[in-house]
Design a protein that fits this description.
The protein has about 80 residues and is of the alpha/beta class. The chain is about 30% helix and about 35% strand. The chain has helices at about 20-30, 45-60, and strands at about 1-5, 10, 15, 35-40, 65-70, 75-80. A hairpin with a 5-residue loop joins strand 1 and strand 2.
Amino acid sequence: VSINAEGQIFLQETMLELDGLVPRLLAVTDNNPDVRIFVRGYKEIDYGRVMEVMGTVNSAGFRKVALITEHMSGPSIIQKAK
């Protein structure tokens, strides 16, 4: 899941509204709550929007939600929500 600088949400290459994210995630993961979901937010985005998306994914039952950020050495996982 990616969130661009304007706060728009994408699942792979498809733009979605927040209320459409969970049904699409459930479909692509075959309703498996143990699938790890990665959330990438652009550095210009408001942190609250990132937390809103992560909270929505987590409240849908996905137990492995990770935030990805860019470092000088490349992408890394910096936080896991439970």
